[in-house]
Amino acid sequence: MNIPLFLFPEEIRRTIYTTNAVESVNMTLRKASKNRRIFPTDESVMKVMYLATQNISKKWTMPVRNWGMAMGWFAIEFEGRLPLDYDF
User: Fold this and answer.
1) Does pTM surpass 0.85?
2) pLDDT tens-digit profile of 45-71?
3) What angle do CA 46, 49, 51 make, to 5 degrees?
4) What is the model's pLDDT at position 47?
5) How far is CA 26 from CA 40, 57, 60, 82, 88, in A?
6) What's the CA gap between 72 and 59, in Å, rounded?
7) Long-range CB pairs of 64-71, under 8 A, 24+ apart, other chains included
8) Residue 63 contacts residue 15 (beta carbons within 8 Å)
9) DSSP class per residue in 11-72
10) Angle between helices 19-34 and 42-59 (to 10 degrees)
11) Which value, to the nearest 10 degrees, does the dihedral of the CA atoms of residues 78, 83, 84, 85 take?
């Protein structure tokens, strides 16, 4: 089910549309793969990307603005697709 971004309420769009965060992740993953020109196996690529992702997530210290409201909206809109024990 594809939903265009503009069907979301404005507050939700502001929460989920964060290009700076996406570009930062992409830059870090490119940097991790650029340092190693040749990977012996597909599994080695996955390991490098996994470790880079782990390092990225350590840097995320700021809470996402209006995240509780966005998750509440998602829980209503996509009923049954979110874990019931999720803490808003």
Assistant:
1) no
2) 899 999 999 988 887 777 777 788 888
3) 105
4) 93
5) 22, 13, 15, 26, 27
6) 26
7) 64/15, 64/18, 65/14, 65/15, 66/11, 66/12, 66/14, 66/15, 67/15, 69/11, 69/12, 69/15, 70/11, 70/12, 70/15, 70/16
8) no
9) HHHHHH--HHHHHHHHHHHHHHHHT-S--SSHHHHHHHHHHHHHHHHHH--SPPTTHHHHHH
10) 140
11) -140
**pLDDT of residue 13 exceeding 90:** no
Greatest CA span in the chain, whole angstroms? 46
Per-residue model confidence (pLDDT) at position 84: 61
pLDDT at 82 over 70: yes
DSSP, collapsed to helix, strand or coil, labels residue 75 as: helix
> For residues 33 and 49, is the Cβ–Cβ distance under 8 A?
yes
